[in-house]
Each structure stands twice: as structure tokens, then as C-alpha cells.
What does this fold into?
Amino acid sequence: MINTIDYHHIFSEIASEFKEVDDLGAIANYIPELGKVDPTKLGVHLTTVDNQHYAFGDADEPFSIQSVAKVLSLTLALKIMGGDLWNRVGVEPSGSPFNSLVQLEYEKGIPRNPFINAGAIVICDILVTCLDDPKNDLLAFIRKISGIDSINYSSKVAESEKKCGYRNYALVNLMKDFGNIHNDVDIVLDLYFYLCSIEMTCKELTNAFMFLASGGMNPIINERVISLTRTKRINSVMLTCGFYDEAGEFAFRVGLPGKSGVGGGIVAIHPGKFCIAVWSPKLNAKGNSYKGMKVLEALTTKTKCSIF
Ligand code: DON
It folds into this structure.
């Protein structure tokens, strides 16, 4: 039950315990602009489906959400294109790093899932085809489902990625060769880099993702985002694919559907109960927030409450 968990008490325990935890991660400096972030930041915000808020640390500071945004682009693409989308991108865990090229060659340009870079690039291609003004329409969608009009892209981060995104250029070109990219590769990548550069706070992330905790409806703004069935699909792909070659480890330790980004953010969902966002910029070897994963493990351990 929601109300029997003392989140205030649990959060104060976690906040004091984590002051003592050494951060063994490293900041993602393959995108030079991300290398400028203060590595000591730690923010957590949890919003329950009945709109109770619990937070500590730097939860109100915007950061680069990176691949966390891939859940929102998938949601919009599913709304527009429906289930045909799954002919162009799979729903299987890749077991490979997020930017790997290896499977894509064997599997003829069909990415394993929409959260590895290749899959998210195909989703961007779909959005370029279907939207009149893809960047603005995508941003408008995210503002609408979160109820927050100030959410924006960072052109500095997007430009920084564009300069150094050699692997993403390789992925999009390989998929173009296989016929799974229908638009100009530069236009598709431009949308992809902007998608990854969206900045949000932990609190804003819980607003935007709340629909996944409550059957497709965002109860905070009383808005249906997507159907119950598609909510199930998105949460299940988050559980099996949200952490790339560490998806098993996240399910094993945390036991919630979630999605990470190389900005150090993680969003996790407890369907029917809450949405939580954590931000700590230093990443483990698999590109997921080192402390972020540990905070979420502590949460589901202390609350004795995961989906399992
Ligand atoms: O394309 C990239 O490499 C980044 N913009 C996004 C990667 C990412 O966030 C992977 N997540 N853990």
C-alpha cells in the first residue's frame, strides 16, 4: 500500500548513507559538454500516483536527460504509428553496449530494441516522417504530458554530440544501407541529438513519466497519454532493455522498469504506486549512473517493494 511506506524516513536514511558512499563511477566525457557537469551532484525525487512528493539533494536542478528521453520519443512514435512500429525495431534485450554496431550488421539493420542508440535513431526517423516540425512537435508533446512548459533542449549539448557522434553516424548509415532509415541521415541524427540534449530536473522527470505508473494516464494533469496496453509494452521494454547490457543487473538489484541516460539520470516506475527519478553524473562501466543504481537498490530494499 502506498501510504504505509514512510518515504520521508527512508529518504533521510538513504541521503545520510550516501554521503559516505565513494562514487567509483566516471563522468561521460565522450560528449565534451557533459564533461563539464559537477560530478558530486545527487538528486532524487519520488512522486506517488496520488501526487505525494518526496525528494532530497539536487532534485530541482536541470540536467541532460540523454537516453532517458528515448522513452518519450518511443511513446510519441507509438501514438502516431501504432504497432507497425515494431516491424522496424525489436523488443529484445541486446546484451550489448548502447552504441554497439555488431548486432546491427547480423540483423540486417533492425535494431534489437528502441532504447539502444540504433533503435532510438529509427524512432527519430519515424518521427521525421510523421511530424510537420519534428523538434518542436516532440518538445510540445513532452511539455504537454508533463504539464511543464519550460522544458527545453540544450543546443550546446546537441552541438557537442554532433561534433563527436561518430558511432551514431556509423549506426545511421549502416541502417540507411539496409533500408531501415527513410529520411536524410543528417536530418534524422539532428533530431536524435536534440532528443538526447533535453534538460529536466528529477521532479520534472517524475511528472513526465507519471503516466507509466498509472496505466497511461497522468493523474497530476488529468491527461491520458497512451492506452493501458501500450503502457504495459513500454514498461516491459524498459524492464528488459532500459539498461543495455546491464538490464539483468538492474532488474536483479532494483526490480523496477527503468531507463538510464549518460547524463547520470535514471527514471524508474512502480506501476500503480510511484515514479522516481535519480541523478548522479558519474557512470559505471556500462554507462549507467553508479550511485543512481545504488540509491534505487536501497529504495526497493528498504521499502521491501519492487514489482517482484
Ligand atoms: O548517443 C549517445 O551516445 C548519447 N546521446 C546517449 C547515450 C545514452 O544516454 C546511453 N545511456 N545510458
